[in-house]
Write a structure and sequence with these properties.
With about 300 residues, this protein is mainly alpha-helical. It is about 75% helix and about 0% strand.
């Protein structure tokens, strides 16, 4: 067991970091915000953490906190105009933001070292510390979803007109969800920096943007468990299909197509809905007591 853990420790770390990234994407999708900015916020958090640690000699964990705060601040600034947009316009605006971040990281060579990225980052994040953070974030999101905030997000996602008729401020909740998403993505990027020794602009490009969205679509976007399952499956696939290295993208694409067609709710959300339906049927179905035979 110990040898197995040591062999795949880097994979476990990568899965945990991607769970945070998927949680960031889940928050905005639950609120009905079609944002693709998680990769950009992750890049901000990662580069902030890496540069503070390597160039200024800061404590890695303090650098992660600053990177998370940077993601929170930038998302708060972007949330003001984005809360006025809807649908494809939100997607295009956040996609432009990701492209701006990538352009800066690639061309500001004196600060970011350009395409070569930042190297020799101290490895400060252990698997257990990453697991602890993921558990804390999941508990926070689950508790958040059980109160009025989570119910408001669900109503907004289903029908904004109904939400407005109930007195729910749609722009306000969109801004809160977007800021929370930026904070989680910044945290994900910072943890990725102190668990992978080096980062490059390519790590936070279009592939990560698509992966973050695919994780939530695959697992399900109405519960946090969907984001976790999607991150687990998509991050593990390259290792599982290592033998078919040239066809990894094809396998992932086929898997996504099958899930979208046959399990539109996602893997985790479908299972959760099935379990809830069975429990409801057991409660509704009356228990019939067999009549005793007359002597």
């Amino acid at each position: 067991m110990i040898n197995f853990f040591n062999t795949y420790q880097s994979l476990f770390d990568h899965i945990l970091v991607n769970m945070l990234l998927a949680s960031s994407q889940y928050v905005v999708l639950r609120a009905g915000v079609f944002s693709l900015g998680s990769a950009g916020f992750a890049a901000l958090g990662a580069y902030c953490t890496a540069l503070l640690t390597t160039k200024l000699g800061w404590n890695p964990w303090l650098s992660v906190i600053v990177g998370m705060l940077l993601g929170t601040l930038v998302s708060a600034l972007l949330a003001l105009p984005l809360s006025r947009l809807r649908g494809v316009f939100q997607a295009v605006a956040t996609l432009a933001f990701v492209q701006i971040v990538l352009t800066v990281t690639q061309n500001w060579v004196s600060l970011t070292n350009g395409p070569m990225g930042v190297n020799s980052i101290p490895h400060a994040a252990s698997t257990w510390s990453l697991l602890t953070i993921v558990v804390a974030v999941v508990v926070f999101l689950v508790m958040m979803g059980r109160y009025s905030f989570g119910r408001a997000l669900d109503v907004i996602r289903e029908d904004e007109t109904v939400a407005v008729s109930l007195g729910i401020s749609v722009p306000y909740y969109h801004r809160i969800a977007f800021v929370l998403s930026g904070a989680l993505a910044g945290l994900s990027g910072g943890l990725h920096a102190i668990s992978s020794y080096s980062i490059t602009p390519h790590d936070y490009g279009f592939a990560l943007l698509v992966a973050a969205l695919a994780m939530v679509v695959l697992g399900g976007r109405t519960t946090v468990w969907g984001a976790l399952v999607g991150a687990l499956v998509l991050t593990s696939l390259p290792e599982i299909f290592r033998v078919f290295a040239d066809y990894r993208a094809v396998v992932q694409g086929i898997l996504l197509m099958l899930v979208i067609i046959y399990l539109p709710r996602g893997l985790a959300d479908t299972v959760i809905a099935h379990v809830k339906d069975r429990r409801l049927r057991r409660r509704v179905t009356p228990h019939v007591v067999p009549a005793r035979s007359q002597p």
